[in-house]
């Protein structure tokens, strides 16, 4: 499955708002199109929006180059144009660390070449392509580490969508599940539907079906029941931003699952690449939480389910404190609490 395509100088995104019933690519011709696709969740998942934004930077560069070649009057220098595009892309969604990480990598690449159009003409596109390829390799590496934590015959609970769709390919938490399955561990999966946007029911269920991994779809409020019946043996989730003490922002509802897992003494694993860590912040209280449109709560598939005019809250993420996390699986290995020390031992970037 190719969720992100770079073709003929255009970015094509497998539109995740239409899945699983319609498989259609959404074309982005400018960095503004990319920012809009990120805001509207046509592309979503922390690593995926980072990769999409990197190509958004290439589109901003190409547009500048075109104007320069056509000898249009330029109102900005390349540096100003790229910094403006970077600010627009970074602000499209505030919680996922990978978004700013990828945009900053692109800016740094341009800066290293003194914002020279001649040098960057070839280089800039290659940089975005390498970020995309690296994300897949990173996921496969972390999946290998994570798969070692999965016991044979276990049932894994997962949340939101952390597979190929949420990344450049393969996936983080879902990558761990895929590798465990490929290692003949005879696993099964329980997928929470993940209200309000239903990433579990629409996207994870679709991906698992294609991978032929046995799974059961449940509503989010069923997780405790199945844990109390001994039906769930571990939880594996992704992350949008991880503070240096291990506090983790992930899809709203993740914290609830972590509390339940602790109550039932079930291991709770977070799987994420290093690009998701924000080591400038000491704990989760400093992570900005995105508030999304109320219609995601009052409607399902454009069908109104709540009465008109109700007051709604819709935080897209919550923070799971590090003391509820058994281990964090990364491409460099598995981190154990206390995470500050574990990160230092691993020689974090
Ligand atoms: O709002 P979303 O769908 O972008 O949220 C996605 C998640 O919370 C994922 O769990 C996270 O980005 C990790 S994806 C590899």
Task: Give a structural overview.
By secondary structure, this protein is of the alpha/beta class. It has eleven helices and 16 strands. It has helices at residues 31-39, 46-69, 78-90, 97-112, 117-147, 173-182, 199-211, 223-228, 254-263, 295-298, 339-345; strands spanning 4-7, 10-14, 25-28, 155-158, 188-192, 215-218, 234-237, 241-243, 248-251, 268-271, 277-278, 299-300, 303-304, 317-320, 327-330, 333-335. It is globular and about 70 Å long. The model has no long low-confidence stretch (mean pLDDT 96). 5-S-methyl-1-O-phosphono-5-thio-D-ribulose binds at residues 44-47, 96, 160, 162, 166-167, 172, 199, 238-240, 250-251, 316.
Distance between the termini: 30 Å
**Computed CA radius of gyration, to the nearest angstrom:** 20 Å
Number of helices: 11
Q: What does the overall shape look like?
A: globular
CATH hierarchy: architecture of the largest domain: 3-Layer(aba) Sandwich
Average per-residue pLDDT, rounded, comes to 96
Poorly predicted segments: none
How big a fraction of the residues is strand? 15-25%
CATH superfamily of the largest domain: Translation initiation factor eif-2b, domain 2
CATH topological fold name of the largest domain: Rossmann fold
Question: What is the C-level CATH assignment of the largest domain?
Answer: Alpha Beta
**Helix proportion range:** 40-55%
Q: Which structural class matches the secondary elements?
A: alpha/beta
> Which small molecules are bound?
5-S-methyl-1-O-phosphono-5-thio-D-ribulose
Biggest sheet layout? 7 strands, mixed
Spatial ordering of strands, largest sheet: 6-5-4-7-10-15-16
């Amino acid at each position: 499955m190719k969720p992100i395509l770079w073709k003929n100088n255009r970015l094509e995104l497998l539109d995740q708002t239409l899945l699983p019933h319609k498989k259609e690519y959404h074309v982005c011709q400018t960095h503004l199109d990319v920012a809009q696709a990120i805001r509207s969740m046509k592309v979503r998942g922390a690593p995926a929006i980072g990769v999409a934004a990197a190509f958004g930077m290439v589109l901003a560069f190409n547009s500048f180059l075109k104007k320069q070649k056509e000898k249009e009057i330029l109102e900005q220098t390349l540096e100003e144009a790229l910094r403006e595009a970077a600010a627009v892309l970074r602000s499209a969604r505030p919680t996922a660390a990978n978004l700013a990480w990828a945009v900053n990598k692109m800016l740094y690449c341009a800066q290293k070449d003194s914002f020279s159009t001649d040098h960057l003409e070839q280089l800039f596109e290659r940089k975005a392509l390498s970020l995309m390829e690296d994300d897949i390799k990173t996921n496969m590496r972390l999946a290998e580490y994570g798969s070692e934590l999965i016991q044979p015959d276990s049932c894994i609970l997962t949340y939101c969508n952390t597979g190929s769709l949420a990344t450049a390919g393969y996936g983080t938490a879902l990558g761990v599940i895929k590798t465990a399955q490929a290692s003949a561990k005879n696993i099964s999966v329980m997928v929470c539907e993940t209200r309000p946007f239903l990433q579990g029911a629409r996207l994870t269920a679709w991906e698992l079906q294609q991978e032929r991994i046995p799974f059961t779809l449940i509503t989010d409020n069923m997780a405790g029941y199945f844990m109390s019946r001994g039906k769930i043996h571990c939880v594996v989730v992704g992350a949008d931003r991880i503070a240096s003490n291990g506090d983790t922002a992930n899809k709203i509802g993740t914290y609830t699952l972590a509390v339940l897992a602790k109550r039932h003494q079930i291991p709770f694993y977070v799987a994420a690449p290093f690009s998701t860590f924000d080591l400038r912040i000491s704990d989760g209280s400093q992570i900005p939480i995105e508030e999304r449109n109320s219609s995601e709560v009052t409607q399902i598939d454009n069908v109104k389910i709540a009465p008109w005019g109700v007051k709604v809250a819709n935080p897209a993420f919550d923070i799971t404190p590090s003391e509820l996390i058994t281990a964090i699986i990364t491409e460099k290995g598995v981190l154990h609490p206390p995470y500050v020390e574990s990160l230092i031992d691993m020689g974090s970037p």
